[in-house]
Amino acid sequence: MPSRTFQLSPEELEQIEVAMNDNCGEVRRRAKALRMVHHGYRFDEIVRTVNVRNRSLIYYWMKRWKQDGIASLFHQAPRSGRPLITDAAYREILEATLSRQPEEYGYGSPGWTVEMLQQVMQERTGRRLSENTFRALLHRLGYSFQREPVQYRPPIRRPKLLEEIGAWREYIMSLPPRSLPVYTWRKKNTPGKGK
User: Angle at the Cα of 116 (from 115 to 119), degrees rounded to 5?
Assistant: First the structure.
């Protein structure tokens, strides 16, 4: 049963239906709530269905619809809080840093850690992000923390006679050093170390 206080014309109802398939979840949520109000659903049911804290937000969406029509669904109010400090220039510097090896910045590690990246970015930009913010930024840019391939050397054979110790020592010294697993930040689903 349609609502007596909030009626949509057939054209407006069609616009709402289209908006319910929008890419933005917030637009879909507003459209669904307004359609439910139009069809006469109880406000407590709408609140639960569209997952809002209370009915005052739904009243606000209704008021905005009456003022601005379909544009009200796409309205984004300015958000409160501190402005982002990771602008496009910061992200470009981060991408350029990740494309190089940590050794080029004086680190003795073959792979990047968050702490090393934070230090380099602070030196290069003068801005320091918290570890959580930095990790979230890396993930938004498509990076994940991945294990680098490890080169294992063959098992060591033990000398049986004292005379073999010299030859054994030369053999050991000729082998590449055994390394621990290395983790670094790379684009997701990127095999190997490729740049």
Answer: 85
